[in-house]
Amino acid sequence: MKAGILGTGHYVPEKVLTNFDMEKIVDTNDEWIRTRTGIEERRIAADQEETSDLALEAAKVSLEEAGVKGEELDLILVATVTPDQSFPTVSCKLQEALGATNAAAMDVSAACAGFMYGVITAKQFIETGAYKHILIVGAEKLSKITDWEDRNTCVLFGDGAGAAVMGPVSEDRGVLSFELGADGSGGPHLAQTGDFIHMNGREVFKFAVRQMPESSVYVAEKAGYAKEDVDYLIPHQANIRIMDAARQRLGISEDKMAVNVNKYGNTSAASIPIALSEGVKNGKIKDDDLIVLVGFGGGLTWGAVALKWGK
Ligand code: ACO
């Protein structure tokens, strides 16, 4: 049995905060942010808008696209480092809101690699035949753990949610290979200490610029393809320079990589599923395309999959 993606969805809050808006908040400028990161603007959730609200909107779209009803779900996994509260989990809130009366539910905490951990967990349940339909959502309200006085971090993050429904697909499609990893010794480089995110940007950059290209090539080759065969690369959207390093290592052209970091900044666990959903909706992703999803994040953690698109 092969596990693949049956439907995708995404949702971002309405409020846009541009780099020029950031200039009024901290000592920074549009040129610095754009050239170092590729970010031009980000979305910020309203005060009363919680992570579960963003997650629910994305989840509904993905279920609709998949043609799967809430009560047909067996498991809900929500990847987030910004749950509404530690419990009840965001996944349990979705379970109720979606009428997913037959689903188990848990949150997955692996920072920006969380969606990858969710997809790879879901794949195991589907391939063993234990579960048929699994909803995986990456959702973050990073604005609530952002120190709006720290220019090193506050310019980088944004809020949003992306979702995918996974289930059985035909033998020649679905997830072909994966990699998951963690290195707790690098934990202090990217951590929530007290109320806010703290980051040693240079150390995270060095880790990411090595790990993302390595993992991308690894999953493509483990799936039995040459790295240049990748039709569409969906990297975690943290920094365009890190993303380009992965793309260049694969040896693929710019139009074969999903980019939305310019519009949304780094939305942590939401960034990959948002980009995936956009790729489906704008026609970049087509049946039988070889897709690589790759993420890295706090922990440190990383994860990647190679998959053949389609049911
Ligand atoms: N505006 C203007 N200047 C700034 C800003 C800002 N917003 N932020 C930092 N600077 C200054 C610094 O203080 C430093 O000044 P100094 O030389 O006088 O000390 C100068 O700019 C250069 O800083 P560098 O750290 O050298 O800049 P760099 O080119 O490394 O870019 C960045 C910094 C963008 C943070 C980069 O290191 C990076 O992208 N790292 C990875 C971050 C990342 O991916 N995080 C997400 C991980 S996953 C997750 O978060 C959940």
Detailed description of the structure:
With 311 residues, the protein is an alpha/beta fold. It folds into two domains: 2-169, 3-Layer(aba) Sandwich (Peroxisomal Thiolase, Chain A, domain 1), CATH 3.40.47.10; 174-308, Thiolase/Chalcone synthase (Peroxisomal Thiolase, Chain A, domain 1, 3-Layer(aba) Sandwich), CATH 3.40.47. 33% of the residues lie in helices and 27% in strands. It has helices spanning 19-23, 30-37, 51-66, 90-97, 114-127, 151-154, 201-222, 240-250, 261-264, 271-281, and strands spanning 2-11, 15-18, 41-44, 75-79, 104-108, 134-141, 159-169, 174-182, 190-193, 196-199, 232-235, 290-297, 301-308. Strand 9 (190-193) and strand 10 form a beta hairpin. Helix 7 (201-222) packs parallel to helix 8. The structure holds acetyl coenzyme *A. Acetyl coenzyme *A binds at residues 28, 32-33, 36-37, 111-112, 151-152, 155, 190, 199, 201-202, 204-205, 208, 238-239, 266, 268, 297-298.
Could you give a quick summary of the protein structure above?
This protein is of the alpha/beta class and 311 residues long. Helix content is 33%, strand content 27%.
Write the layout of secondary structure elements.
Layout lengths: L1 E10 L3 E4 H5 L6 H8 L3 E4 L6 H16 L8 E5 L10 H8 L6 E5 L5 H14 L6 E8 L9 H4 L4 E11 L4 E9 L7 E4 L2 E4 L1 H22 L9 E4 L4 H11 L10 H4 L6 H11 L8 E8 L3 E8 L3
Parallel strand pairs: 4-5, 4-6, 11-12
Antiparallel strand pairs: 1-7, 2-3, 6-7, 8-13, 9-10, 12-13
The chain binds acetyl coenzyme *A (ACO).
The site of acetyl coenzyme *A has 23 residues, from α2, α6 and α7.
